[in-house]
Amino acid sequence: MSGDTTPGGVGTGYRPDGLDDPFTDGGEPAPTGRSGLDAQLPALGAVGWLRWAWRQLTSMRVALLLLVLLAVAAVPGTMFPQRPQDPAAVAEYLTEHASTGPWLDRLGFFDVYASVWFSAIYLLLFVSLVGCIVPRARVHAAALRGRPPRTPRRFGRFPAQGAGTSPDAPQAVAERAAAVLRRRRFGVPAFRVDVHDEGAGTWSVSAERGYLRETGNLLFHLALLGLLVAMATGQMLHYRGQAIVVQGTGFANVQASYDTFERGAAFDPADLVPFTMRLDDFEARFDPQTLQSRDFTAHVTVTEPGGEPEQRTVKVNHPTVAGDAKVYLQGNGYAPELTVRDAAGEVAFSGAVPFLPQDDVYTSRGVVKVPDVSGDQPQVGLVGYLLPTAVEPAEGLWRSIDPQPVDPLLVLSVWSGNLGLDTGVPQNVYRLDESRMEQAVDAAGDAVTLYVRPGETVELPDGLGTLTFESLPRFVALDLRHDPSLAWVLTFALLAVGGLMASLFAPRRRLWVRAAPGGTTDEGPGGATTVVTAAGLARGDDLGLQPELDHVLAEVLGARPAVSGDTTEHDTTEHDTTEHDTNVHDTTGPGTTRPGAPQEDRT
């Protein structure tokens, strides 16, 4: 202290150290240093900054931000073609966008889910969840081992209250209340219960429920963590392939048999189960009026290693399982079986060529490439359409009117030259590279068009040879998928939903019942009666708290409570300062309320 120091610390010159400033009468600026007010905060240092960063990373706010950021980061995967799924589309995009394409490729936009930035967000979210779950699980485990709080002295300020009388002794009432509160629901005790002897013949019961709420919260976070692990595992160990199988033929489950094949980084194609599948028949049903598809069924024969051939069916949304992979029916169409002979009469091409449907009546487009001609003859390319049920509404104009092969017709244009198959650049089998080819024309300069029906043979223009339309089998497009994480993803998703529902809807409640000796009556043993009071407290607004308290009290008393929501008899005034405070802690400690302050039920 400085200035006048009269007894009691009162004087005209009294001024505490450090409070002088230029605005006081005749004062001078307070000196800086040890006696000044400018406190020097310690530097955080490297450890302090790391601890701060860790706390930020493991906070709920950052975890939610990373979850949203992960969803946003996945958007480019749906906007740009992805190299693992469609490398040809990526190459085409790079060709068409010569300026921006290479930059997008460097930034990983054509392989989003394997990019550095997507993996970084994924790992940060994983670490954030782990850092959030571990301490909360430790605190929750300690809370599960705890006991319900002791019964407060006064119930007057609780949101749910009830009272009644019983002819039984206080101890018997308390034990009955404990039995009611311990009653199991779905195999789990409804409340954790403690019975207390408060002395002077008074007994009380304290009960608590609702730890399922925090358990559900932890389960939700653990399930999210499991989902991240399962999805990452699935991306590493999965494979997916598409194969077109023509009726009467089959394929073996090796990578070379697939038209397209993608796999996870940790999957070895040598681990493919070597089963075979043969397409025996294909049935298609259409509505006779609207021509809309009604049912597709592929009849296949599957032979797994060490097993006998087995007849199976594959339908839309009804896959079959072969060699730990699910086989889906993805599409179907027609594959005309053609034979092309070159100018020397040698068979240059023979086989079924899938034509892809373009509309509901299966107008199908296809390309036939004939590179294996003899001598120095030009290679041949045929481009055109298959019409399952062809009609000619106008001269030279053909179209299909039915998806079933009632009157099939091939309409083809002819090209000759170099197909470009020897350049080393992969080509789309359904597209003809016309850059080194010339289209056949007639004497008038019009393009030559061939019209061929099953069983017919036509001459190719310019002496290129002949074309024979042998038959018209069907084909199916099969999609084979293997992902060992699917069952785990489903399990963790259901656990996440269950945990979220528990955390949102499980009520957190505390109930107390006190049985105290009351007056005398002609009923009961010895003419004595027991006054029973009860109170309840919930975390947040809980409309079911009072009904549950009334139900418990009714069972304890054997009837509806005599009084509900009125315990004035056992309440005290606002200014009561007796030693029985509502705080469950020691009333001589820091929790003691001061005289004249509103009393608070802290449980």
Describe the structure.
This protein has 603 residues and is of the alpha+beta class. The protein is built from ten helices and 29 strands. The strands form seven sheets. It has a six-stranded antiparallel sheet, covered by helices on one side. Strands 16, 17, 18, 21, 22 and 23 form a six-stranded antiparallel sheet that branches. Strands 8-6-26-13-12 form a five-stranded antiparallel sheet. The longest helix has 29 residues, at 116-144. The protein starts with 44 loop residues before the first helix and ends in a 39-residue tail after the last strand.
Note the main attributes of this structure:
alpha+beta; six-stranded antiparallel β-sheet; 30% strand; 29 strands; 603 residues
Question: What is the topology?
Answer:
Elements: H1 45-57, H2 60-73, H3 76-79, H4 87-96, H5 101-106, H6 116-144, E1 160-166, H7 170-182, E2 184-185, E3 188-189, E4 192-199, E5 202-209, H8 211-237, E6 239-246, E7 250-252, E8 260-263, E9 276-286, E10 293-303, E11 310-315, E12 320-322, E13 325-334, E14 337-341, E15 347-352, E16 356-357, E17 364-370, E18 379-387, E19 390-394, E20 397-400, E21 409-417, E22 437-439, E23 449-452, E24 457-460, E25 465-471, E26 474-482, H9 486-505, E27 509-520, E28 528-538, H10 545-557, E29 563-564
Antiparallel strand pairs: 1-28, 1-29, 2-3, 4-5, 5-27, 6-8, 6-26, 7-9, 9-10, 10-11, 12-13, 13-26, 14-15, 14-25, 16-17, 17-18, 18-21, 19-20, 21-22, 21-23, 24-25, 27-28
Helix pairs in contact: 2-6, 6-8, 7-10, 8-9
Transmembrane segments: 62-80, 112-134, 218-237, 486-506
Region (Disordered): 1-35, 560-603
Keywords: Cytochrome c-type biogenesis, Membrane, Transmembrane, Transmembrane helix
